[in-house]
Amino acid sequence: MNLIASRAISIALFGGLVAFLSLGPAAGYGPQILAVFIAWASYYHFNGKLEGLKKSLITNLFGAAWGAVAVAFLSQQERFGAGVHFPAWAAIGVVITLAALVLATRLSLFDDIAGLLLGYVAMAGTALQSAKLDIILSPSLENPVISVALSLIVGAALAYVADMIAEALAKFASTRGSRAKPAIGA
Questions:
Q1: How far apart are CA 57 and CA 119, in angstroms?
Q2: Among the residues of the chain, which ranges form H helices?
Q3: Which of 47, 96, 129, 141 has its Cα between 20 and 30 A from that of 175?
Q4: Calpha distance 134→79 (Å, rounded)
Q5: What pTM was computed for the model?
Q6: Closest among 44, 41, 48, 37 to 15, alpha carbons compared
Q7: 75: left (phi over 0), alpha (psi -120 to 50) or beta
Q8: Handedness of CA 129, 131, 132, 135 (dihedral sign)
Q9: Which tens digits make up the pLDDT trace of 20-68?
Q10: Over 90: is that where the pLDDT of 120 sits?
C-alpha cells in the first residue's frame, strides 16, 4: 500500500469520526467541524510532520485571534457605530483586522498569509453567528471563540496523528509486501 492510499484511509476514518462527534455526541461541547478541517488543511499546507503542526497552530491561532477581534468589533456596532449601517461597520472591522494581520507577516513567526487567513476565516465565519460581546467573552465552551480555537488545535493534532498512522501503515504494508513469498509455479 502506498502513502496516498494509507492517507486516504486514515484521513477518511478520522474525518468521519470528527463529523460524527462534532454533529452528534460532542455537539453540545462546541466542536466546530469547519475549524477542525481548516486546521487539518493548514497542517498539510505546511508540509505536515511536527514542523507543519507547529506552524499550523501558530499561524491559525494568531489568525483566529484577529478574527475574534473582528467579531468583537462587529458586536459593538449598536454601541459605537449606531449611525453606520452594519455592512459598512463590518467592512471597517474587516479592513482594520486584516491590515493588522497581514502586517504581522513581517515577523518570521507569522510569515505565512495563508495560515493566518485560515485561522481568521475559521474564527470570523463561525463566531460571527454569535456576535454578542458577552457571549464571545464568556469562559465557556458555548463561546465560539473558545470552541473554534480548541477545534483548530484538535484539527491540527488529528492531522498529525492521521499522518503518522498513514506513514506507519504504508511502511508496514511495504515491508510486509517485500517479505511475501512468490506463488507456486510463478
A1: 9
A2: 3-23, 33-45, 49-75, 77-80, 86-103, 113-127, 133-136, 144-178
A3: 47
A4: 13
A5: 0.85
A6: 37
A7: alpha
A8: positive
A9: 998 888 887 777 888 999 999 999 999 999 999 999 999 999 999 999 9
A10: yes
